[in-house]
Each structure stands twice: as C-alpha cells, then as structure tokens.
C-alpha cells in the first residue's frame, strides 16, 4: 500500500520562472529541524519543463509507504528544495502527518515525482 501527498510550489516573485527536474524532499518532525527523517528517492517519471508566471503554481507528488507495524516514525513537515536550487523551505503539512517505518531496508519508503503538475492561466 502506498499513500500520496500533493505539494504545491507557488511563484511569489514578480517574474516568470522555469523549473525542470526533481525537488529535494526530506521528512521533518514537528520542530522542523532536529528530528530529520529520510530523504525522498526519485521515481522513474520523466521530468517536464515547467514555466510558472507570477502567482501561478506547479505541483509534485510525494509517495510514501506507511508504517503498518505500529512502531513507525511520524513526521509533520517537509524540507523542500526546488530543482536546481540549494536553499530549502520548511513546509507544514497542515494537520497531515506521514508515518513511515523507523528503520528501512534496502528500498526507500519515500519517493518524489518531478515538478510539473501545473495549474494557473499559462500552460
């Protein structure tokens, strides 16, 4: 079983921006800094080029395999680094939480799709 969360990225600047690729995503605990979880692995989805006008948004999907053992670790925030950037922003999950196994095997429990679920006036 796999769950998904849609993450929105909004262009709050005054000029159009372009993105291509995968965001960096790390799960964080409630304090947003000290309790770090796994980094999301990339899916094999092809990344589209996305152009976002001021005020428009693009999205990406975060997939995770939830803990079923009852001893998993719960995270309530994400550290998101846009493609080709080095600065991350901490995002609150607005009341949602992600619970993944406390220890991982060979395969990651969290995956990220590329940016590109575009909404707004432009295409």
Total helix count? 0
What percentage of amino acids are in beta strands?
35-45%
Level of helix content?
under 10%
Rg, nearest Å? 15 Å
Shape: globular
Distance between the termini: 33 Å
Low-confidence stretches: none
What structural class should be given to the helix and strand makeup? mainly beta
Q: What number of structural domains do the residues give? A: 1
- Provide mean pLDDT, rounded: 85
Q: Specify the biggest β-sheet.
A: 4 strands, mixed
Strand order of the largest sheet: 1-7-12-5
String of helices and strands: EEEEEEEEEEEE
Number of strands: 12
Describe this protein with a few key phrases:
4-stranded mixed beta sheet, 12 strands, 4-stranded antiparallel beta sheet, mainly beta, 123 residues, globular
Explain this structure to me?
It is a single chain. This protein has no helices and 12 strands. The protein is mainly β and 123 residues long. It has one domain (3-112). The radius of gyration is 15 Å and the shape is globular.
In short, what is this structure?
This protein is mainly β and 123 residues long. 0% of the residues lie in helices and 43% in strands.
Record the SSE blueprint:
Layout: E1 3-10, E2 17-20, E3 24-28, E4 36-39, E5 41-42, E6 49-52, E7 57-64, E8 73-75, E9 77-81, E10 89-92, E11 98-100, E12 110-112
Parallel strand pairs: 5-12
Antiparallel strand pairs: 1-7, 2-6, 3-4, 3-9, 7-12, 8-11, 9-10
């Amino acid at each position: 079983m796999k769950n998904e969360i849609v993450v929105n990225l909004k262009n709050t600047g005054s000029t159009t921006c372009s993105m291509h690729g995968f965001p960096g995503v790390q799960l964080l605990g409630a304090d947003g800094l000290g309790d770090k979880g796994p980094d999301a692995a990339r899916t094999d989805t092809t990344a589209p080029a996305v152009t976002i006008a001021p005020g428009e948004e693009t999205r990406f999907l975060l997939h995770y395999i939830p803990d079923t053992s009852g001893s998993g670790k719960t995270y309530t925030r994400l550290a998101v680094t846009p493609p080709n950037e080095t600065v991350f922003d901490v995002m609150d999950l607005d009341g949602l939480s992600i619970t993944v196994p406390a220890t991982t095997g060979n395969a990651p429990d969290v995956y990220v799709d590329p940016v590109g679920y575009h909404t707004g006036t432009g295409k």
